[in-house]
Amino acid sequence: MAITVVGSVAFDSIETPAGRKERCLGGAATYFSISASFFTSVRVIAVVGEDFGAAEEAVFDARGIDTRGIEHARGKSFFWQGSYLENLNEAKTHATELNVFADFEPKIPDSYRDSEFLFLANIDPVLQRRVREQMPGVKLVAGDTMNYWIKDHRPALKEVLKGLDVLLINDTETRMLAGNNNLVQAARGVLALGPRTLVVKHGEYGATAFFGDHSFAPKSDGSAHHPFRAPALPLEEVVDPTGAGDSFAGGFFGYLASRRELTPAILRRAMFYGGVMGSFACERFGTERLQKLTRKEIDERFTLFRELTHLD
Ligand code: AMP
To answer: Which of 160, 193, 244, 285 sits at a 20 to 30 Å CA gap from 147?
Structure first.
């Protein structure tokens, strides 16, 4: 089943303890779609500027990602500059330039309209909502956001949260959104804003799913879900954590879209595939590692994740 994703397609300048990279291809929708493309077909909605050329387009093409919904506008693409010098789990933002995204009016190509899955990757919540409204027939909607939007765009963000089946954000964003430092209480606070399921990403420590009263993957006996924690892979070296969260989301949602049924067991596996894809993203700068990845490597790492947590 196809996923349509809206979010940033960007150029990133990144500094980590392993080095620095200027203006590499990035953006939430970019990482998400490359990651999800290993599981299902992906269609992107975004806008890019004149600096987005054949080399960038080729990255999407190589993974068979549908880019008919990427508009080419006059001006510069979204640009983000960040570093991870003190904490590899949390980016420090030095610059965010919306550029062509500032006046973006998303248009959904007709060929995208039968998508059953919609992912609202990190971007202005006003744009996320516009896309959501133009895709009324989707079966499952998940989304992401970040501190930038939580701080200064809260009313628009709250409108988006009301309609989400799954929200995927990190610990700090969860605490910030709920205004509560205890993770469990904060998760409850976020679920009260609308999402039916909340997946909290803990960087190198894995991710936890919290469930509201109406999970999209109900248990067969109708009983309540307990939270579920999936691991992250301890890595020898984290070269660049940029995009790990979006790659997690791509693995998670891509796997869900590849399955006929949405059961609690499938949801748990999706959490593991999320961790698998997030771990690969960290191994090289930008999208480099994801571009070279094979399905065999993904399956081998999934086995490693199982062994990491298996008891008997
Ligand atoms: P992640 O490390 O998974 O949280 O996402 C990193 C990506 O998010 C980078 O490639 C950036 O281009 C993109 N990004 C950074 N800030 C924003 C923002 N305010 N809105 C949308 N995308 C952003």
So the answer is: 285
Find the residues whose C-beta lies inside 6 A of ligand 1: 8, 10, 12, 26-28, 31, 80, 96, 122-123, 146, 148, 242-246
Distance 145 CA to ligand 1 centre (A): 9
Ligand 1 atom nearest 149 alpha carbon: 19
Domain range for 83 is 3-309
Helix (H, G, I), strand (E, B) or coil at 64: coil
Q: What is the best residue among 80, 124, 282, 290 to mutate for testing ligand 1's pocket, by most ligand atoms within 8 Å of CB?
A: 80
| Per-residue tokens: 228 | 């579920």
Q: pTM for the full model? A: 0.97
Measured in angstroms, how far is the CA atom of residue 81 from the centroid of ligand 1?
A: 9
pLDDT in tens, 196-241: 999 999 999 999 999 988 777 888 888 878 899 999 999 988 999 9
Q: How many domains, the chain? A: 1
Helix (H) or strand (E) holding 178: helix 171-178
**Cα separations in angstroms, 17 against 14, 23, 240, 260, 290:** 10, 17, 9, 42, 20
Give the CATH number of the domain where residue 245 resides: 3.40.1190.20
Q: Cα(123) to centroid of ligand 1, in Å?
A: 8
Is residue 60 within 8 A of residue 44, CB to CB? The reply is: yes
pLDDT in tens, 152-206: 999 999 999 999 999 999 999 999 999 999 999 999 999 999 999 999 999 999 9
